[in-house]
Amino acid sequence: MEQSFLDPKYQLGDPFLFRDMEKSVERINQAIQNKEHIGIYSDYDCDGIPGAVVLVDFFKELSKNVSGIAERVHVYIPGSS
Fold first, then answer.
1. Residue 40 Cα distances to 1, 5, 14, 55, angstroms
2. Among 23, 26, 54, 72, whose CB has the most other CB atoms within 10 angstroms?
3. What DSSP string runs through 33-58?
4. What sign results for the dihedral spanned by CA atoms 62, 64, 68, 74?
5. Phi-psi region for residue 68, left (φ > 0), alpha (ψ -120 to 50) or beta?
6. How far apart are CA 45 and CA 5, in angstroms?
7. What is the pLDDT of residues 10-50, one digit of tens each?
């Protein structure tokens, strides 16, 4: 159990059920292709922190195939300092 907690395997539903997901995917792909910085803006509560972690994990996984992306992803959580 400890290992599964430290190395989660996300089982998510269909993300394209969210409104404008296609636009979001297109924008992220554009940012990756143009080597832009990507900001993850979250809030400091019980769903904001885990949401930011899921996105950071996504970009870390993506960095295995896309060089330099991990260095261009920045997380901002206001009120966390």
1. 29, 23, 21, 8
2. 72
3. HTT--EEEE--SSTTHHHHHHHHHHH
4. positive
5. left
6. 20
7. 777 898 999 999 999 999 999 999 999 999 999 988 889 99
